Amino acid sequence: MARRPPHALTAALGLGGIVLLLAACGETSPQLRTGDPAPGFTTRYLDGTSLDFPEAYRNRVVALRFWADWCRFCREEMKAVESVYQRHRAAGLAVLAVNVGQSQAVAEGFVRGIGVSYDVALDPDATVARRYGVSALPVTYFVDRQGRVRDKILGEASADVFERIATALLDERP
Question: How far is the C-alpha of 37 from the C-alpha of 119, rounded, in Å?
Fold first, then answer.
């Protein structure tokens, strides 16, 4: 009977797969800077409907999160982001969680298990992640109401840090 590798090894193997996906085709990662226009992309939401970013989020502050189910920090962070989203969505905060390199079934099972209500999109071949220069997970880009990249969190962040960045952008006047 085949043995399953320990969880840490499974995560490392998953990370290796994402790194390979992100490095594929010899593309160089873009270096997004504060104030740059958020790169546009077309993909699918978890329910299969089409997503055209940033058009679908015009005039909203967007936390664009890149994640995968094997990411050891993603579960708790995504649950923490849910509470910030609930407090500020009426003020114009949107969260778009982009699953990198996994199937719809895997992403759907994970999201259902943690109970988040914000938008989830699929990036099965890491095309969107490459466009944003993602080389590790989790990572979150904050996009202002004018569609510009304004901040970035690389790695795990507390709900307080996430909320501080989001509310500062929500408080800006267009």
Answer: 21
Rg over alpha carbons for the chain, rounded to the nearest Å, is 16
What is d(CA 21, CA 46) in angstroms, rounded to the nearest whole number?
20
Which residues, 6+ apart, have CB-to-CB distance to 75 below 8 Å?
A: 110, 114
CB burial class (10 A; 0-12, 13-18, 19+) of residue 146?
A: middle
Q: Phi and psi at residue 29, in whole multiples of 5°?
A: -75, 135
| Residues 126, 101: Cα–Cα separation, whole Å | 6
| pTM of the predicted protein model | 0.83
Instruction: Give CA–CA dist 69/21, Å, rounded.
Output: 16
Give me the architecture of the 7-171 domain, per CATH. Answer: 3-Layer(aba) Sandwich (3.40)
Tell me: the pLDDT tens digits for 85-124? 999 999 999 999 999 999 999 999 999 999 999 999 999 9
